[in-house]
Amino acid sequence: MDGAGGRGERGGRGAARRSRGAARGAARSSSQGRAREPPGDEGSGAGRGRPARRASAARSRPAAPSGGEPPPAPRSGAAAGRAPAARRRAAVPDGAAGVSGGALRLREVLSRLSLPRQDVSEASGLVNTVVSQLIQAVRGRGGSFSSIERLGAGSYYEHVKVSEPNEFDIMLLMPVARLQLDECDDTGAYYYLSFKRNPKEKYLLKFLDEDGKLSAFKMLQALREIIKQEVKNIKDAEVTVKRKKAGSPAITLQIRNPPADISVDIILTLEVQQSWPPSTQDGLRVEQWLGRKVRGELRNKSLYLVAKQNKKEKVLRGNTWRLSFSHIEKAMLNNHGSSKTCCESDRPKCCRKGCLKLLKYLLEQLKMKYPKELDKFCSYHVKTAYFHSCVMWPNDTDWHWGNLEHCFHKYLGYFLDCLQQSQLPHFFIPQYNLLSPEDKASNDFLSRQLNYQLNNKFPIFQERN
Is 181 helix (H, G, I), strand (E, B) or coil? Predict the structure, then answer.
């Protein structure tokens, strides 16, 4: 998924795979002239507070405060988690009005990224059949996983999938009343889990390790063995369980669907009925975008934890769990307007999701071209930058559909800021930087590639795979 726990953040799969749909997504581009220079390479300081709003759609960034310094980035709470500030030089033509040729080209790209309804219907129907049978069989066995519930997550269920409907993410939720969470590093994302007292869920006790910690490895392995046995009983489709990837939180199914296969990630997720941990306190700053009430409602939702190995551990024991906000991300993407009427059938359309799909596709195409150099990047980086951009420009009028090119450029400019400074705070855990300075060479490489595309009117959108 594109959330914290699935396909997007793992980065192991995704854009590097070539697909039929990627070819459909290529768009013809006019060759007249060159685009304005991309945002400059100079750094810009980060600070607290919400950036000033743009005075008009003609500007690419909120106005800089007196003194010439760029406006502060979205709040984060910790110095290490501050988002890079908006750049001073814009990649958007000043005074742009109406629909420019560039916007028309981007709209053509978006139209080609739309998934054919028949393909979507066939693929989703097959996935639903397989997953429903599996869940019924797993529940029917009784024991540890008899209470699982299903939740669709990731780009397909967020309606931002590009290329083909060939990858699905399904979270299998296991309800747990209460757990003791102990941070296992300084990111605020990874935890050791244990029980404060005898749990109601006695069936979980057999998954404790010798230190009394709930073992993600043991639970995932047990579920994997059950699924491997049950797929043999599915008669309506040809399903196999792919080989386990080290450190992956998913059990990956491959469903035969000529001429291409469908990949389904089954993600074991603990749904804990308790407050979010302190590391999330200064995250999810959506007050100016979605409203204070919505933030409170979202933070009152259950805590999700996925069986994800923390690679920073000196000794990998398979007993770490990572926070996941896939359910919150899905809710925000599917209800993204500040006015509560955005993109309704008879209301003005915004281009928020269109911009996200364009940058997802751009990264996907670059990863296909430079798989080794861009291996560390995934769609979750793009989605995180999207959420920060929605906070930075919170109004529906900031994302008017008629200003698609302008909006895409300012969103891309923000992502370039993050790459230049090797600083992209996790949207829900501000102290967790998704762009490590240790990977600066990779960050710089992607920055150069994006700047080249921006300066040359995105030639990669013309390429046919």
Answer: strand
Q: Strand, helix or coil at 194?
A: strand
Give dist(CA 360, CA 381) in Å, integer: 9
The answer to whether residues 187 and 158 touch, using CB atoms and an 8 Å cutoff, is no
DSSP state at residue 114: S
Residue with tokens 């244990």: 194
Three-state SS at 407: helix
Contact 75, 282 (CB under 8 A): yes
Distance CA 184, CA 321 (A): 9
Give whole-number Cα distances, 103 to 98, 110, 289, in Å: 9, 10, 25
Q: Are 411 and 389 in contact (CB under 8 A)?
A: yes
For the chain, the first-to-last Cα distance in angstroms comes to 24
225: left (phi over 0), alpha (psi -120 to 50) or beta: alpha
Start-end of H helices in 308-465:
326-334, 352-369, 379-392, 404-421, 440-455
CA distance 411 to 418: 11
Q: Which amino acid is residue 161, in one-letter code?
A: K
Q: Are 277 and 191 in contact (CB under 8 A)?
A: yes
- Of the pLDDT bands very low, low, confident and very high (cuts 50, 70, 90), residue 163 is low
The total of other beta-carbon atoms located within 10 Å of residue 236's CB is: 9
Please give the model's pTM, rounded to 2 decimal places.
0.78
DSSP string computed for 34-69: -PPPPSPS------SSPPPPPSSTT-SSPPPPTTSP
Q: Which of 97-111, 163-177, 186-200, 427-441 is modeled with the greatest confidence? A: 427-441
Higher pLDDT, 101 or 268: 268
What is the share, in percent, of the chain residues with pLDDT greater than 90? 48
Question: SS3 for 270-326, per residue?
Answer: EEECCCCCHHHCCCCCCCCCCCHHHHHHHHCCCEEEECCCCCCCCCCCCCCEEEECH
Is residue 255 classed as helix, strand or coil in its secondary structure? Answer: strand
The conformational region for residue 19 under phi > 0 = left, psi -120 to 50 = alpha, else beta, is: beta
The average confidence (pLDDT) of the chain is 78
CA nearest neighbour of 143 among 222, 253, 251: 222
6 vs 22: CA distance, rounded Å:
21
At residue 169, what is the residue type? Answer: D
With beta carbons less than 8 A apart as the criterion, state whether 164 and 142 touch: no
Number of alpha helices (DSSP H) and beta strands (DSSP E) in the chain: 12, 9
Q: How far apart are CA 205 and CA 215, in angstroms?
A: 10
Under a CB-based contact definition with an 8 Å cutoff, are residues 429 and 7 in contact? no
